[in-house]
Design brief:
The chain has one helix at about 20-25, and strands spanning about 10, 40, 50-55, 55-65, 70-75, 80-90, 95-110, 120-135, 140-155, 160-170, 175-185, 185-195, 200-205, 210-215, 220-230, 235-250. The protein is elongated. By secondary structure, it is an all-beta fold.
Length: about 260
């Protein structure tokens, strides 16, 4: 427990220059900045979007004792909800084993909509309970991640997505997830895995019993997709079927009168 660490141990503040060597060895940064509110702007844009965060409370403690680094932090914000994390790195000069956890409660994703240019509107809540183990070079994660009651309107989609719900479970170095969403065209479901044991591999599927789309004016289609996507080694492979049980195409003919010479 961080609060029961022997008082004789070496306690260091985030601003203590002595911690830099330790963090640099771990490949981490010793810089921490907190502002109320926090404003992030995308550089180079004529009218850069901004992201404003209100932070009600934030705390961070860091201690080093007997080649063991212990970090604990908490943050409370109307947008980010309540975030709490504890991390212990043992045997810093050797195996650098990990232990600890992280919890996120009621993170509101709507604050991102003004920061990502392609997103017109975004909402939904994130909650997560995670435990860390393994080592710094090969971390292992166990726990849950949930995204609920989401909506998304973006330039990438012809319609607004609603009722977005995603439930994911971490099993050491594998993430398994299932999700659903709907739009004016119908409902669809997602399912897949993300594996990073040896290399990053994403496998996901998209399926719907009936989905109405209008690819262009005058063309209405009802499709039943069953698609599979695999991302591996920077390459994407797509397979599956798209059935079209119903189609409607509006045809307009213009009559041209040709006069005889």
């Amino acid at each position: 427990d961080l609060h029961r660490v022997d008082r004789r141990q070496r306690q260091m503040c985030i601003r203590d220059r002595g911690i830099s060597d330790v963090l640099n060895e771990l490949g981490l940064s010793d810089e921490l900045g907190v502002g109320v509110p926090v404003e992030l702007n995308a550089s180079g844009a004529e009218d850069p979007p901004s992201m404003m965060l209100s932070i009600d409370g934030v705390s961070a403690t860091l201690a080093l004792h007997n080649d063991q680094l212990v970090v604990a932090s908490q943050l409370t914000s109307p947008q980010l909800g309540h975030i709490q994390a504890e991390l212990t790195i043992a045997d810093i000069g050797g195996g650098r084993s990990l232990s600890g956890g992280m919890s996120i409660d009621k993170l509101d994703t709507s604050f991102l909509q003004n920061f990502i240019p392609s997103i017109e509107s975004l909402s939904g809540g994130i909650s997560s309970q995670l435990k860390l183990s393994g080592s710094l070079d090969s971390p292992k994660i166990n726990g849950r991640f949930d995204f609920t009651e989401g909506t998304l309107k973006s330039d990438y989609f012809p319609e607004t997505l609603r009722g977005m719900n995603l439930a994911a479970t971490f099993d050491q170095q594998t993430l398994n997830y299932k999700g659903v969403f709907e739009s004016d065209g119908g409902k669809a479901r997602l399912e897949g895995t993300l594996d990073w044991q040896k290399e990053w591999v994403l496998k996901t599927s998209l399926a719907s019993k009936a989905f109405d789309i209008t690819p262009q004016s005058g063309v209405d289609l009802t499709v039943k997709p069953t698609l599979f996507l695999t991302l591996k080694e920077g390459r994407a492979e797509v397979s599956g079927t798209i059935e079209i049980p119903k189609a409607r195409v509006e045809v307009k003919l213009s009559l041209i009168h040709i006069s005889e010479p």
